[in-house]
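Worked example

This section walks through a single chain of length 251. The input is the sequence exactly as stored; nothing has been trimmed or padded.
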Amino acid sequence: MGAELRLTVLGSATPYPLPGNPCSGYLVSAGGTRLWLDAGTGSLGELRRHTRLDQLDGIWLSHLHADHSADLLTAYYGALSAEIRLTRPIPLFEPPGTADRLAHFLTNGPERSPVESAFAITELHDGHTARVGELTLTTAAVEHGMPAFAVRIEGGGRSLTYSGDTAPCAKLTALAQNCDVLLCEADSDTETPVHHTPEDAGETARRAGAGRLVVTHVGPFVTPEDAVARAVTRFPGPVEYADPGRSFTIQ
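Given that input, the structure is written out below as tokens.
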């Protein structure tokens, strides 16, 4: 069977962090493997409760909105200018163009900031696959009005699918097919072309045949309790909320 697959919620707020709840960030682990999934505002501090940057096996980013990626900036300083010493750059799986945008923001003089000294860059594309320690990652392009991706993570004989930010779409449903847990955004109160409503999250989980639904990235006009209650109307399985600090065993 292998090592137990676990999901720890570092933060699930949007569009900016709340007291006690950073923006989107998650730690996925199996055995000794640790993957930082999205690096939203404030999530790095919570990540440090569980692991150090030099103990990460990889970082995976769904898209470049700040509430999913902003803490890469401070991670760069932490990796190169703090108490840790990297033995190698941290593998970073990212939407195309991330490295140059990161370097542009961090560069303060005539020399480009050496972001590649901190991160070993792999650009994502639809259908991309990677092995990170004990985890297998499969990426699909999704619909968010910009380059954006979802990921299926498999380890220990179990599977977790993370939607990133997206409208309901066939590629997410296919990626999540028969997964044990679907971690799905429920940002929107009404239908939009770039986000799920809670009902949409339930419908995507139902169509995919997911074993369990965890709603996350719940928008500011919907309470977590309401998001769960609304998702339940479309999905017959267990539905829970991604409370910051909570850990889920994928089973």
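What to look for: Residues 5-249 form a domain with the Metallo-beta-lactamase; Chain A fold (CATH 3.60.15.10).
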